[in-house]
Amino acid sequence: MKFKERTPFNEALNTFLRAIPPIEETEVTPIREAYGRVVAQDIVAPRDEPVYRRAAMDGYAVVAEDTLGASARSPVILQVDNEARHGAATRVHTGSKMPDKADAVVMVEDTERLGDVVEVRTQVHPFENVGAKGEDAHRGELLFTSGHRLRAADIGLLASLEVPDVTLFRRPDVAIIPTGEELVTKKPGDGEVVETNGLMNTFLVEQWGARCRYRQIVPDNPELIEAALLNDADADLILTTGGTSVGIRDLVPDAVNKLGRILVHGVAISPGKPTALGLIDRTPVACLPGFPVACLVASYAFVKPAINHLVHTERTYEPTVTGTLARKITGKTGSRTYARVTIQDGVVEPIMASGSGILSSMAKANGFLIIPENVEGYEKGQHVEVVLIDT
């Protein structure tokens, strides 16, 4: 299969995502295993948190009115007692239950204990340094909606509310099939290379929230490629590496088209032009190029959004920072160019290795400078936005 034209990036991505059926299966999961997973049912607070008024500072619980006019030069003297009331203060610690009649806390550094009394050296207002009942969450409050990806703080909140488990979308199963006669697992001879694309994508796919099936290398043989694809037709996404261009050994898009259909072959991104996207029955297939940099770029561009789509989340983007370009950089006319760069102390330095087979350029990079299709490039000294990557 030969591609005669390159599909614009956004059109290619949208075509692919529209063809992917999101996962509907859910599973009840203990919260300790829920980090990074996606909520399938809205979660509401089962009770107030905290269930009592609490001290927000170490110090003395007081009736705020008793501290009127207090200062370092003119402190207010209060009796220290186990029960706060007018004229008396109670020692409290951060998180302590507030005495019923107290409505404020004086920080300990604004006091001085003198036996059975305490000097209060600052005025406090009602509710100052006091946490209200239910200030963290109140019973029945909507905490997280379906489609939310749980973070560490989210799980901490659920733990504080004693929520034992949550209903989540099942994690996608992603099959990774490296192809190519030249690939070996170790000790490469002349004309051979160690397989890295499948290995790298295994880490990325798991980082993006999916389970991975990392398959053995498949030679450039149509029947073997078709058999490998059919073997993983039950996956939620198949990811192949290599064999996507227009050479005589680039057989993967033809195999996908024979078993299903190719939606896109050839995308206006650089590197990554030979990317192909298709379906086998209802299983989406992302055919990534064999050159490792092109493979990684295509994975960020298409595989990550596909995994998000499978679990009902909106497309997530890597964080960006702005810096000053250390030298001129050009893009590929008509293509969305992913230039590898480093950014440090606000200076953006392009990595000059331009070949999409130079994997060390990705190992050295900590970001992409994405040059849009309609932009020729950027000049030295120009302020640019860098997409940070974790490769």
Number of helices: 7
Q: CATH top level of the largest domain?
A: Alpha Beta
Globally, the shape reads elongated
Task: Supply the helix-strand structural class.
Answer: alpha/beta
Gyration radius, in Å: 30 Å
The CATH architecture term of the largest domain is 3-Layer(aba) Sandwich
Strand percentage: 25-35%
Taking pLDDT < 50 over at least 5 consecutive residues as the criterion, the unreliable ranges are none
Annotation keywords:
391 residues; alpha/beta; Molybdenum Cofactor Biosythetic Enzyme, Chain A; Molybdopterin biosynthesis moea protein, domain 2; Molybdopterin biosynthesis moeA protein, domain 3; 4 domains; six-stranded mixed beta sheet; 7 helices; 28 strands
List the helices and strands and how they pair.
Layout: H1 9-18, E1 26-30, E2 43-44, E3 54-55, E4 59-62, E5 76-80, E6 88-92, E7 104-107, E8 111-114, E9 117-120, E10 130-131, E11 142-144, H2 152-160, E12 165-169, E13 173-178, E14 183-184, E15 193-194, H3 197-207, E16 211-214, H4 222-231, E17 237-241, H5 252-259, E18 261-265, E19 269-270, E20 276-280, E21 283-288, H6 292-310, E22 320-325, E23 329-330, E24 336-344, E25 347-350, H7 359-364, E26 367-371, E27 377-378, E28 383-388
Parallel strand pairs: 5-6, 13-16, 13-17, 14-15, 17-21, 19-24, 22-25
Antiparallel strand pairs: 1-12, 2-11, 3-10, 4-6, 4-7, 5-9, 8-9, 18-20, 20-21, 22-28, 23-27, 24-25, 24-26, 26-28
